[in-house]
Amino acid sequence: MPTQTSQALETFENPNPERDYTVRIRIPEFTCLCPKTGQPDFATLYLEYVPDEKCVELKSLKLYIWSYRDQGTFHEEVTNQILNHLVAAVGPRFMRLTARFSVRGGLYTTVVAEHRAPDWVAPAPARLS
């Protein structure tokens, strides 16, 4: 039986909530439909986040991303919608979603959307000599 797509994002408890650390996930097979032509749009999504109390479960993320395959949506809309859904599910300290769409009509589109918790301040980078 094939796996069904889902808009449900599952989470699990952050194993190290006392520490800021970054989770990076590359999603190379994102597909949605152009709302004007109905043709498929392809992108690689780059998700980066600093978890607070929860982390996103990867299989649910995969099924969630697959759910966009038959949806007609603009690049800007879908990038922000995915970020909004992830922020609502995970409640991260920081989250950035970068969507790099493949060429269409000689144009490449990259959309970057970010969320920062109001009380979160990024730590200064460590400098090693």
**Number of discrete domains:** 1
Task: Give the C-alpha Rg.
Answer: 16 Å
Oligomer: single chain
Largest sheet: 4 strands, antiparallel
Explain how this protein is built.
This protein is α+β, with helices and mostly antiparallel strands and 129 residues long. The protein has a single domain, classed as GTP cyclohydrolase I, C-terminal domain/NADPH-dependent 7-cyano-7-deazaguanine reductase, N-terminal domain (GTP Cyclohydrolase I, domain 2, 2-Layer Sandwich), CATH 3.30.1130. 19% of the residues lie in helices and 38% in strands. The protein is globular.
Brief characterization of the structure:
The chain has one domain (11-116): GTP cyclohydrolase I, C-terminal domain/NADPH-dependent 7-cyano-7-deazaguanine reductase, N-terminal domain (GTP Cyclohydrolase I, domain 2, 2-Layer Sandwich), CATH 3.30.1130.
